[in-house]
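The step that takes the researchers longest sounds almost clerical: writing a folded protein down as plain text. The outcome of that step, for a single protein, is printed below.
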Amino acid sequence: MYEQLDEVLRKVHELMDEYRVQCLWYMRKDYYPETAESAIRVLRAVENNGDLAAFKKAAPLRQWLPQHSSATSAG
């Protein structure tokens, strides 16, 4: 589905822009996660605070991240 962490983070940033007002109103407007772990926290917030469409966009990204977060943080 996704090849690289950078690609997933870019998708997370796009999702944040789309749902910031609805789901992430409490985060700084200039905040974007730079690690898999912080991206997972953001995606959980989108899933918890958003509508069904937001959940469906966030879930596949969040499922991809744990499989790749330990490898990228070690390198």
User: Anything to note?
Assistant: The radius of gyration is 12 Å. The chain has three helices and no strands. Residues 5-74 form one domain.
